[in-house]
Prior knowledge:
Structural class: alpha+beta
Number of domains: 1
Radius of gyration: 19 Å
Number of strands: 7
Helix content: 40-55%
Amino acid sequence: MKLLKIAFCVLCFVCAGLVYADEDTRSHGSCKYCGMDRQTFGHSRMLLEYTDGTSAGTCSIHCTTIELVSQAGMVPCTVKVGDYHSRKLIDAYKAFWVIGGSKQGVMTSRAKWAFQHEQEAREFVRQYGGGIGNFYLALKAAFEDLHEEVRLTLQRTETRQERGVRLCK
């Protein structure tokens, strides 16, 4: 009887997870660039749908910048982002983006969060700091941050090589 109760509880959790999962997290379960679970990071995930009918799911605007660069010839017809509070996908262009602040971001040192409602973004800024901008400002910040991360990685590589550390096999 106890085993039956445990099996029933497990089944309930699995079913609840399937109901909770959005369609995009079923088709793009993990970020194609970093492997992070997109349902877990539903508050920062993004979905790009291209004019050729394909789509790409990422965990954050950070990984979306990598997608946009690596697929430079592709034309996105929709760009969606998870609303910070509801986790519902919203139009990234219409979202109110909070850039910066003390709340740790996803895959970056400078956070970028999207909100469907301006008032929620303003409340977030009051609590954590940062500034409100649009998608293009958030994207610019993401590209700048990606550039800085790559620069630091290359600088560390150069320093190791100067010390005589062999990096390649």
